[in-house]
Amino acid sequence: MTADRPRSYAPVVDEDRCKGCGLCVEFCPFGHLRIDEHLNVSGYHPAHPETAAEAAVDAQRPAETAPDVDEERFEYNFSFWCVRCRYCELMCPDAAIRLDGDVTGVEGAAGRLDGSESSALNIDVSGREDEGRRGD
Amino acid sequence: MTAPAGPSLQTAPVVVQHPGSWACATTHYCPGCGHGLIHRLVANALDELGVRERTVGVAGVGCAILIYNYLDVDFQEVPHGRAPAAATGVKRARPDLVVFTYQGDGDLAAIGTAEIVHAAARSENITVIYVNNCVYGMTGGQMAPTTLVGQRSETSPEGRDPTTQGHPIRVAEMLATLDGAVYLERVSVTHPENIKVAYRAVRKAFTYQLEGKGFSLVEFLSPCPTNWGMKPVDAMRWIDETVSAYYPLGVIKDREPVHLAHLVQQPPTAFREDYMHGFRYETVTQATEDELGRRTRRVHPFGRRGGRWVSVDGEEYRPSDHDDAEDED
Amino acid sequence: MPLGERVLMKGNEALAEAALKAGCRAYFGYPITPASEITSYMARWMQVEGGTFVQPESEVAAINMVFGAAGTGMRAMTASSSPGISLMSEGVSFLAAAEVPCLIVNIMRVGPGLGGIQPSQSDYFQATRGLGHGDFRVIVLVPANLQEMVDLTFDAFSLAEAYRIPVLLLADGVLGQMMEPVTFTRAIDPASLQEPEWATTGASGRPKRVVKSLYLDPAELEEHNRSLQEKYRRIEQAEVRWKTYALEGARILLVAYGTSARVAYHAMELAEERDIPVGLFRPITVYPYPYDALREVVQQRGIEHILVVELSAGQMVEDVRLAVEGRCPVSFFGRSGGTIPAPLEVLEAIRNVAEELPATGAAPRKGGAS
Prior knowledge:
The complex is a heterotrimer of chains A (136), B (329) and C (370). Chain A has 136 residues and is mostly loops. Chain A has helices at 23-27, 52-57, 87-91, and strands spanning 11-13, 33-35, 47-49, 97-99.
């Protein structure tokens, strides 16, 4: 874990937009997202990136091996784990969860759609013409 | 109903503030509804192709009636099922505009069956986004033409009985029988990789419109957690396991328009002149290569009479500019 | 057709030619007797004008194609006959609510149902009571001869655009099929028409526009309806048209429009030869209906009895009774089934009315229309 990683190197959830559908929770390959206990302004239970305490509940990732232990609820520690696959961002129907920060040049990250100004959905389709599909 | 206020992101900085096709509004859709995803795919495609400012969308009637609040393009809101007809009107009046319809399965496959079939048969140069969630969402979950056999709904409470309620309609396969239908693909939004495939399909459908190739339709298998009585994650799984078994994913049809393919195969010949009812018509049935090497083809709005020449990238081509069809390099 | 030249044309074709001359460049029509010639004419000549012609799969599709094309600001029209107009009902409601201008032509035939292919005037209720669901109106123009039909086609587009309202040209099968000399006096270049500031033409350098009729908020929708009604009041003030004939000394007033007005006119002449004092009031718009003008004629001319002549079971007669407000009795003469009454039949009805009039000392009036 390097000290100069930006703090926002992780998904950010817009709580007011989130409808608690749970798709991001399901599709994060590392299971880093959770559904909140509290309600947002619309009456939904929004998602949030897991806290250190929640990560500690997962027996495969005991808290003492997580480098950034932080008690405050929204100081996430899984910047160490997030590979920025952007699955959560892709699956969210409400664009409530987004990856921020410059994604170029980060190893393992999906690139941004060339030339697009839109923040609607950034999809890299270059060189993936034979991408398999789930559900067949 | 005014559009809800924009996003209220947490304090982390946002890298891209669009102007783009996507209006960033909070949607009225249920948690886990596929519309939000599909809207953003359409918006992204319009932005990647840079056509936002010359796009007109035609909204069908259904849950997505308010799409005009969520996409920043001109919209027309037309009666239930008639979006392909209105889109025909827009595209014929203004062929320079990019025209798409956004329709659900009640809109397109029930009340709008005639309109979609004939728009495809005429090979209208429009893009149809067809959202198939196997149910009537907006009105509370009644059976749709796409509801699966055995699926429960408000009007098939014991499950769809094929003996009295018939079998579901596979719209993409049905339209594939029409020569005018050029590109038909069925996609789903059940997994990020499927979403990427879906995006490629949407972008291809719009690209075909820009290339003047004719009618294209992308059918989305989309979840309706509320009316299916499932959690969003389970709804996605149900599409993967059950819905896509009846509606197979993939490219149903992707071909050059029949008339264009036909034209290309024949060698160019001179213009023929027909005399009919004392009026002189020019009947041209072959493609010609103009001096820039573009292929041109005759556009037949209806029947053999009249029509205009357009090149495949949409520019007007006047046969009168050339003395005869063999005048090319 | 060349301008300024008197040409003999079939009604349907004259109407189509007038629309082309008026700058209409989008036509969508489904064939139906007795209106099919409009579609055929447009199929041939719209191409020459560089416009767009589509024969759609139904009248339902036709009216929605009109919505799409007119929504981009183009002058667009459709033409049909009674059953097809019924199919367009929902579409017209949407057009009126979204305030999209267009021209709809109804070459009326007999009904109800499939009815027959003979002419009628039995769509008056449908035309004047809005043609669809909701609180709305369309302007309804009723020509009685082909030159008037040509001229009203030009006016129809102007009115539609000025008020952002669909306009219905209500003719009947006689007018559609007959041949009369017409003269086209002007041609409008559609390029000279300004793009409206509400049209969906691509949000280039401006905010997006939405042509819609959905207002989920009741307060917003009430305001929208209020503004529509206010528009209709303005139309009722400014766009009423009618003509009168032989009012001097008339005691009986015939009220008729379209083909029945032509028959009534001849019956009026026959009556004058027999010294029966008859006049004719002919509306040219039936929405807005000339209620005030008709009432004034009755009051100022001392009309004692009105005879309404229609090719129907009696529809406009109700508007006449509304206009007259009980000042004099209103009788009705009509034929259904597509039979066009001969002037002598109408004369018989006039005679029956005349026999009930109280005797006066007035000298018989000599013939001659005003």
